[in-house]
Design goal:
This protein is mainly alpha-helical. The chain contains 10 helices and no strands.
């Protein structure tokens, strides 16, 4: 029963779209400007870097806090951690409080990863930085870093269910980036100057 409550908490906390709330507080409908996404990247484009950082950290916490609790009370050998990680991400992507229309989940997934392995999280964010510096495209950097994280989870000796969780999360992130992937293939994806 406690496991179920934690999974439910992970989903409901994930369902709070901080980017949308902060933008609305500033008098902006974030879904109608920029890319229309509620995540830190679009908030940064519209409101500036400071707000992007705030939204990123809040979205990060949606994965980090529930996974820390899962590790603390249930450990990684149980299936609780698997379902908590997935629930956090699904909450952000398909939030019950926002008509099941949410963000793309990278910051939340990074929170989950950081609670599992700070080292893998650091390596992944470093790889994100390298790809972003090289290409200037957030979506490409995010997809590349997400894929690397799953490979590192596989190679690092974590329980198979944790690798499986990472793989499911990667597939969800790829699916939510399908329009970005289409633009990447067409060469029309938004590129920051680096």
């Amino acid at each position: 029963m406690d496991s179920l409550l934690l999974v439910l908490f992970a989903y409901l906390y994930g369902s709070i779209l901080f980017g949308e709330h902060i933008a609305r507080w500033k008098g902006i409908d974030i879904r109608s400007v920029g890319s229309g996404n509620v995540g830190a990247t679009n908030v940064g484009r519209v409101l500036g870097k400071r707000y992007a950082v705030i939204v990123f950290l809040l979205d990060f916490s949606k994965g980090f806090v529930p996974m820390v609790l899962a590790r603390l009370y249930f450990g990684l050998e149980e299936w609780t951690a698997f379902f908590v990680g997935i629930a956090s991400l699904l909450g952000h992507m398909y939030p019950i409080f926002h008509g099941f229309s949410g963000g793309k989940g990278v910051a939340t997934a990074f929170g989950v990863l950081s609670a599992l392995s700070p080292l893998i999280a650091i390596l992944s964010i470093a790889f994100w930085g390298i790809v972003f510096k090289w290409k200037g495209i957030v979506s490409l950097a995010s997809l590349s870093a997400s894929a690397l994280a799953v490979i590192l989870l596989l190679l690092s000796g974590y329980p198979f269910k944790i690798f499986l969780m990472g793989l499911v999360m990667l597939l969800l992130i790829v699916y939510k980036h399908k329009e970005n992937i289409k633009r990447l293939l067409e060469g029309t994806e938004y590129r920051f100057r680096t």
